Amino acid sequence: MKRTHIVVVDDDLAVRDALKFALETEGLSAETCASGRQLLDSGALSRADCLVLDCKMPDLDGFAVIAELEARKVTLPVILMTVPVTDAVQRRARAAGAFSLLEKPLLNGVLTDNIRRATGA
Question: What's this model's pTM, rounded to 2 decimal places?
Answer without folding.
Answer: 0.94
